[in-house]
Specification:
With 99 residues, the chain is of the alpha+beta class. 56% of the residues lie in helices and 14% in strands. The protein is built from three helices and two strands; from the N terminus they run H-E-H-E-H. The protein has a two-stranded antiparallel sheet with strand order 1-2. Helix 1 packs antiparallel against helix 3. The longest helix has 26 residues. It is rod-shaped, with a radius of gyration of 26 Å. The two termini are 35 Å apart. The relative contact order is 0.16.
């Protein structure tokens, strides 16, 4: 693989992994919001409900999603390291030197 292909992979693979991590963190960062309805609210009149519950999604709620972002960062670092490491084995100790 030549250098240009490595650079393209180094840019696009972490972006793809980011969107996968974003979807996972979005499903983990769900919070329940309960709202007390006023007596003149239409839902209160129609259904007799005193509270309304809704859910918010926050993929950057670090208290709930820190593990997703830690795994994302570690996987990107590992991918970049394995992509750009020097594959040439250096001779150690001079055992294979020719005289």
């Amino acid at each position: 693989m030549n250098k240009n292909q490595k650079i393209v992979l180094a840019i696009f693979v972490p972006i793809i992994i980011f969107f996968i991590a974003l979807m996972i963190a979005n499903s983990m960062g769900v919070s329940e919001v309960t709202k007390i309805l006023a007596e003149d609210d239409p839902f209160y009149k129609l259904f007799g409900m005193k509270t309304s519950t809704s859910y918010t999604h926050d993929p950057f709620d670090w208290g709930k999603t820190w593990c997703v972002w830690l795994v994302y960062s570690a996987s990107c670092c590992l991918f970049e390291f394995l992509l750009f490491r020097d594959k040439k084995k250096k001779d150690k100790g001079g055992l294979n030197e020719q005289s």
